[in-house]
Amino acid sequence: MNKWYEEVDNKKDVIISSRVRLARNIKKYPFAAKLGREGAEQLIENVKEVFFAQSEQAKKFYEYYDIGELNSVEKMAMVERHAISPMLINKTDKTGLIMSKDETMSIMINEEDHLRIQSIASGMDIEKALDYANKIDDLLEEQLAYAFDDQFGYLTSCPTNVGTGLRASYMLHTPALESTGKLQIILEAMSKFGVSVRGIYGEGSQGEGSVFQVSNQKSIGQSESDIIENLNSIVKQIADQERKLREKLFTENREKMEDTCFRAYGILKYAREISSKEAVALLSDLKLGAEMGIIKIKDEKPLNVYELFLAIQPANLQKMSGLSLSIEERDISRANYIRKNLPKIV
Amino acid sequence: MNKWYEEVDNKKDVIISSRVRLARNIKKYPFAAKLGREGAEQLIENVKEVFFAQSEQAKKFYEYYDIGELNSVEKMAMVERHAISPMLINKTDKTGLIMSKDETMSIMINEEDHLRIQSIASGMDIEKALDYANKIDDLLEEQLAYAFDDQFGYLTSCPTNVGTGLRASYMLHTPALESTGKLQIILEAMSKFGVSVRGIYGEGSQGEGSVFQVSNQKSIGQSESDIIENLNSIVKQIADQERKLREKLFTENREKMEDTCFRAYGILKYAREISSKEAVALLSDLKLGAEMGIIKIKDEKPLNVYELFLAIQPANLQKMSGLSLSIEERDISRANYIRKNLPKIV
Fold it and tell me: What are the tens digits of pLDDT across the range A40-79?
């Protein structure tokens, strides 16, 4: 079964993916901070039982992972693929994960809240992601009484998640806005519109390869659809500006843009050692080049840059090689992987 | 007819070429500084007549150029190919050139001295170059009485050339010595041995692409063979050190060297704009890679890096395109030329 990030979607030119997560807590258990070891075990068993009892489909398409039993490479690889949060693997209490085999759906158990229901869709399709997350949410709510307040809505560990418990986010690739310094201006303005921006790996992480996450700041005082409408309107504006700027840069200095994109391909195709940071920056140039029609793929094999983005992260790379690698060995292994998986161009 | 720099020679791994020039003056004319316009014209006619009267061969293989009648691109292109000196094109008095079609032999007329007889051979073969220069010299001396002093030898405009009038020089490619900082130490020691070092384009020019010229400082007090023996011994030592250091670097960090050489190929193969300086530096890495067996050429077409070195210099590039190009246009034209002329690799 293909993972969501292996799908090739022509609409992914600026908007790589859409993600939704719902924060939920179960009434009968103390909140995560006070749950304790035994409470955590009971919570996890309870959720597992309810989820997998629902249907044969659940057993076929979903798997349960005891996070504590995974090795560190496997855990970090899941974080790199955005399947789970760093918090889920860093807690001393027991934590669990129910995840669909295509990695589009996941339920983190005993993270900051009892349940974090997450759904990812390729391209700009947050409605689809929300629809899937809501289905899982409804299904669990039938069996598990959630902590809910008529005035505030869903109750959560952190006040910022109270209300809908919804965080909707888009992963954007905006190399033209970034290279011209316009991204910074847009990002600074965004907080006024209730939107926050983070790097590819969450809060505090840098926007590597011109990839950024944009999400709603508040989950209270607005309906799910209002939150999403507001976010969509902002993201569409950013995407439009990025697309217009790409055309402008191409018209004004076609040779420069061609040079940057082709050099990126040349280095990725021939390097024998490459750091994650450099590779991601070059893949970003290559993605831009392919979307602008500068780089034309020859192979039957398509170019899926975001899949490469994820595959060459340190833990995913080690997971593939099945070995524990030093930084130098990873750089060599990464260069080999890219060389083998980069399609030929015209 | 192939030019000397188009020859592929496996022995060119460190020593690219060997060059000899003989400075001569003709007794009956004042030295160049006092020759004047009319004198210059008489001198040139006299040398042309004597040279081309010698045989049918001379007419077939040699051509005469009135330097003042060449356009500036053609003149600079000749300088870039080391066929003539910058001085020959910068003089206000009339200057002339007799050059063989393969550009191995040339006679500059009315440069710093009346005659500068030059011969270039591919690889380490200064004896061949000297032999050819001597043949031309003997032939001219039969008809033209040279300014010669029994005590000092051949008399020249500049005292440094008095005696044999010989400057013998090698063009060396020493990337390993340069990248490790050892070249600087060697170069500083060389003046003690009567050897001087210059960049690829003569005095004051930088050693671009790790290419240097090494030549004798003095031409007096030693026989031709002593001058050459001394220079050969030093050049052989430098070449041996370069070869040993290449092996050492390869053994100690094979991946790093492979990465550098393959990246150079990747950039040269895909760039759409490239400066002369960057191209020469990358071609130097590529040359090293090919000589170390890291880069393996696929085509029937061989790799002749030094030919590319010369072809992508500004004036030669413009000469090929037949157009006057801006710096930006040259960078694009250079990238195109390299892309088309770089052989495929395994």
Answer: 999 999 999 999 998 788 889 999 999 999 999 999 999 9
For residues B114 and B137, membership in a common domain is answered with: yes
User: Contacts of residue B270 in chain A, CB cutoff 8 Å?
Assistant: 262-263, 265-266, 269
CATH number at residue A56: 3.30.590.10
How many residues can be counted in chain B? 346
Nearest to B270 among A265, A271, A332 (CB): A265
Check B273 against A255: CB less than 8 A apart. Answer: yes
Element (H or E) spanning B199, and its range? strand B195-199
Going A140 to A144 to A145 to A147, the CA torsion angle's sign is negative
Separation CA A211–CA A310 (nearest Å): 12
Distance (Å) of CA B264 to CA A296, B258, B280, B284, B295 = 22, 10, 10, 9, 10
Q: Of the candidates B229, B227, B234, B192, which has an alpha carbon nearest to the alpha carbon of residue B213?
A: B234
Residues of A in contact with B262 (CB under 8 A): 270-272
| pLDDT(B204) > 50 | no
Q: Note the ipTM here.
A: 0.85
Q: What predicted TM-score, i.e. pTM, was given to this entire model?
A: 0.87
Of residues B256, B267, B328, nearest to A266 (C-beta)? B267
Decide if pLDDT at B342 tops 90. yes
**Would you say A166 and A22 are in contact if contact means Cβ atoms under 8 Å apart?**
yes
Is residue B346 a part of any domain in this protein?
A: no
CB-CB: which of A258, A267, A273 is closest to B256? A273
